[in-house]
Write a structure and sequence with these properties.
This protein is an alpha+beta fold. The protein is built from 1 helix and 9 strands. A 5-stranded mixed sheet has the order 3-9-8-5-6, with no helix packed on it. Strands 2-1-4-7 form a 4-stranded mixed sheet, with no helix packed on it. The structure holds copper (II) ion (CU). The site of copper (II) ion has 5 residues, from loops. The site of copper (II) ion (CU) has 5 residues, from loops.
Length: 112
């Protein structure tokens, strides 16, 4: 009887922990601050939506590929402070991206 209760409590704890980890990865955000994507690299699960938030006063873009080889998977513009865009990643893979206005700004999304 006592053993059964302990197993029950163990399951509850596992469920709570699983809930927390799902919540922390469900809505990841990338800040754009002083010409940098933060975090520059992000690892997510398939189907996750990532939101970029511009914290600079100037326009940046979130453009897939590299400045030399744009791959056309996404190209979004963030015009000024506190503008945001969201992209859903539906397929696994590595998604390098950059800012079309400042090619030294680079980032990468890894979708598992
Ligand atoms: Cu930029």
């Amino acid at each position: 009887m006592r053993l059964k209760q302990m197993v029950g409590i163990g399951c509850a704890v596992v469920l709570i922990l699983a809930g927390f980890s799902a919540a922390s990865t469900a809505d990841p955000r990338v800040g754009i601050h002083i010409f940098q994507f933060r975090p520059g690299r992000l690892e997510i699960r398939t189907g996750t939506k990532v939101t970029w938030i511009n914290q600079d006063d100037i326009t940046h873009t979130v453009t897939s590929g590299t400045p030399d080889t744009r791959d056309g998977r996404f190209d979004q513009q963030l015009e000024g402070k506190n503008t945001a865009i969201t992209i859903e990643f539906k397929e696994p893979g590595v998604y390098p991206y950059f800012c079309g206005k400042h090619p030294s700004m680079r980032g990468e999304i890894r979708v598992n």
